[in-house]
Fold this sequence. Notes:
The protein is α/β, with parallel strands linked by helices. Helix content is 34%, strand content 14%. It is built from seven helices and seven strands, in the order βαβαβαβααβαββα.
Amino acid sequence: MPRAAVILLSGGLDSAVCLACARRDGFRPLALSFDYGQRHRHELAAAARVARALNVSEHRTIALDLRAVGGSALTAAIDVPKHALGKGEAIPVTYVPARNMTFLSLAVGYAEVAGAADIYIGVNALDYSGYPDCRPEFIESFERTARLATKAGARGGGFNVRAPLVRMSKGEIIRLGLSLGVDFSLTHSCYDPAVRNGETLACGACDSCLLRRRGFEEAGVPDPAGYAL
């Protein structure tokens, strides 16, 4: 049986490509999603669709409430900025404090129990909104911490935190995903979706939507997402 790897699967296009990369690399994916009180909770349905389409045998969703921490437009009663990409503060209000650090910590726990040494995360340091927990420096530092803080590390093992998309543009990520058979119509990337006639539509104007749209333009392929604007 192939070695297992834990893949953080949000339901967005980056995490879907990351899952496809793990399969390409010969791993048996264990998908892990988080219901953390996000206002764009619709992404969990997208994560389930992606996991089914890529034949993931095990997909877990962990519930935790980051609304108790607050401080983000994704978890608190704060307006999601529109048409603001590259404007205003270097770290936008859609940053969720300690989110990737929390998610990776739980992924390490899951990996340790499952006997997996590899964790995939779809962070990106080029086409992103300026979040500090998407930088290569953070990933490298966390990998060292995971080896220090776990039984596996104390016994001479450890974990490989893999971020295969970290230095790619959004267009490059989309082209890679298409080459790996990712169906982007299953993904959903919006921070502030709208529901019209029972259909969930991306707003088209938040940072996540703008990055996605720009990526598909760069890749030269149509974006299958439905947009309200």
